[in-house]
Amino acid sequence: MNLFLDSPLNALKEYVACASVSADSNFHEGLVAAQNFAQAGLRQLGFEVDLIETPGNPIILGTRGDPSWPRLVIYGHYDVQPPDPLDLWTSEPFHAVERNGRLYGRGAADNKGPQIVHMSALARVFKANPNYPVHITYLIEGEEEIGSPSFRGFLEKNKERLKGDMLLVSDTGSPGPDQLVVTTGLRGLCALEVNVFGPKQDLHSGVHGGALYNPLQALMRICSSLHDKDGKVTVPGFYDNVRPPEKWERDELSKLPITEESYAEFLGVQKFFPPPGYSALEGVRFCPTLELNGVGGGYQGQGSKTVIPAEAFAKITCRLVPDQKADDIAKKVENALIEASPPEIKIEVKSKGGGDPYVLIPPGKPGSSGEESDFMIKAFSQAETCIRNNFGTKPIFLREGGSIPIIQDLKEVAGLDSLMIGLFTNEDNLHAPDESFHLGIMNKAIDSFEEFFRGLV
């Protein structure tokens, strides 16, 4: 029995049952189960499979076909986000349940469902043509949800094995089940943690209040200095290298079947606060950001406790656009934080990593390089045709607001440009309770990718 041919849905249920949370060592058994599932699936498809050890979770590398053939690399990840908070799930996160045309479970959409789509489509193609003349390298990592800390080192050691004409990725989003997006860019990311220190221990606010600078107050002052009243980032040099969007990109965005009003309703906000000169839908794709992700310090329990905290912290991330560099922006933000710090407290800023933005102008679009390989040109054309044939609409070519830093790493180290076809939607609740995968998208996508792979030769 071949699950990918006979029941892709049951294959996805089995994969979701592997509780492969990379952020929590208590889920080691689930990570191993997911590794075993993915390796067995690739072997069933005729791939030779290696499990490559890294300082963190192993990386699965499968290869199939003659190296002299056109070379396609496919990327996915077997790790998932933690399921917390468990009490907000309607059903068990690692026991996939079909409900209202969706499959609910952690990792169903991010990224196990799209992997099953690719594998099921390949199973059909290989059954019809066992000597399918494309060399395929299948790369599945296990640390994407924690920032892929081991991936760059793996790339440096294995870049010759990853040589190819193109990278195929389905770890991006689309607006709905009848409208897919070909993602042409991803924002970069840099993360920082800020700690400010005052007295050697928490102090009684009655006995000592008025004598010293409260670290929480200092932190609020520091953080408030990072934006002006219009929301523009005030860090010196932050916007120096920002590449504005092309006209065709704004034209493509206008085709998005989402209004500002429906977007606001979906988010539950009364009014947007985009960067000056941009709409909200433009801001999440074309603009860099500096966000406060978490702030803490002092007493956090019920009731009140009259203390001056000894320290306070903030977690900050910046989403970056072409042609910003993560290291450069992290250093500029660090300098701005230190400059804004009052002398009465001590401040420490730590960079927590990230990655540069990625953009690819599709072949034939204004601003494209004109140096794309014949294989890449055919792949983009074939993707547009297959999506139109199976979903009933042409794909929209858009940048995405999210970040997948390893995509730029694969470009820099292995020379791979990416075709990114989004298979999840906002309603899939990625990283949240009741994550799900739309089964209509799943079935149409399998048909689309079967046609896509056949059309590459």
Question: What's the short story on this structure?
Answer:
The protein has helices spanning 3-6, 8-16, 28-44, 108-128, 151-158, 205-208, 215-224, 247-253, 260-267, 280-286, 326-340, 374-391, 405-414, 439-455, and strands at 48-52, 59-64, 71-77, 97-99, 102-104, 135-141, 166-169, 181-186, 188-197, 203-204, 289-297, 307-308, 311-320, 346-355, 358-359, 396-400, 418-421, 436-438. It is of the alpha+beta class.
Can you describe what's shown?
The structure is a single chain. The protein has two domains: 282 residues, Zn peptidases (Aminopeptidase); 123 residues, Alpha-Beta Plaits, CATH 3.30.70. 34% of the residues lie in helices and 21% in strands. It has 14 helices and 18 strands. The strands form four sheets. Strands 1, 2, 3, 6, 7, 8, 15, 16 and 17 form a nine-stranded mixed β-sheet that branches. β4 and β5 form a beta hairpin. α4 crosses α14 and α5 runs parallel beside α13. The longest helix is centred in the first third of the chain and has 21 residues. It is globular and about 80 Å long. The mean pLDDT is 95.
Please tag this protein with its features.
alpha+beta; 4-stranded antiparallel β-sheet; 21% strand; Alpha-Beta Plaits; 457 residues; 18 strands; Aminopeptidase; 9-stranded mixed β-sheet; 14 helices
Average pLDDT value? 95
User: What share of residues are in beta strands?
Assistant: 15-25%
CATH class of the largest domain: Alpha Beta
Cα-atom Rg, whole angstroms? 24 Å
From the spread of the alpha carbons, the general shape counts as globular
Number of discrete domains: 2
Task: Please tally the helical runs, counting DSSP H or I stretches of 4 or more residues.
Answer: 14
Instruction: Write the CATH fold name of the largest domain.
Output: Aminopeptidase
Give the name of the CATH superfamily of the largest domain. Zn peptidases
- End-to-end span in angstroms? 28 Å
Largest sheet: 9 strands, mixed
Q: Do you know the CATH architecture of the largest domain?
A: 3-Layer(aba) Sandwich
Unreliable spans are: none
